[in-house]
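Task: sequence in, structure out. Protein: Signal peptidase I.
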Amino acid sequence: MVLALLIKTFLVQAFSIPSDSMQNTLQRGDRVLVDKLTPWFGSEPERGEVVVFHDPGGWLEGEPTPEPNVMQKFLSFIGLMPSAEEKDLIKRTIAIGGDTVECKKGGPVKVNGLALDEPYIFPGDTPCDDQPFGPLTVPKDKIWVMGDHRSNSRDSRYHTEDVNGGFVPVDKVVGRAVVIAWPVNRWATLPIPSTYDQKGINEHAAALLTSSAPVTMGALGAVPLVLWRRRRLIARETARQTTAGRTPEAA
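Result:
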């Protein structure tokens, strides 16, 4: 029991899939194992990862919460079964801090100007025709998430008016779903699709995150220059008026 509790707290936790928003990657009733160790070491989610996160701001408002019995509560507490009480969501990370993300009607999702090839999208769905968006720049320490069943997923696209602008704070992320553990005939890993390894997708994001630094430094450097120039003009005017036999006015 102690070992199970430690594993649940620091290493791996089981979660049950309650909806169809991640079909066909995940089916309702699937049990997934979530890696909780990586966030403990400060690593942030990567593009393409399927992540579990706490409700960032009323996304699950109005959704019913099951009432498990005492034994179910105990088993979920020590990590031997998924928790039925926690209000968590599971989606795919599409863009991370510094990325520009967009999707126009009839078009693909683009990250940093590069179109994503998304074979994991539910058959018959479009990338975003039901809810186009962007272009949006993902703030630092936040992610943009979407369900694989695009026409049946209330994801970042539908919450752009909330306190986080539809983005999910990284500190709300529980971990990355790595394995479908149950049922046995559904066992599979959840790798990052190759489309997120496109050449150039990272360089643009890095440039966006660092581009503000020169602007900030330039602004800070301009302040003393302006003050020095002002003092110099005041001193010059004072000297001129003193030479003319007048008392300078207060600047």
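The chain is about 25% helix and 25% strand.
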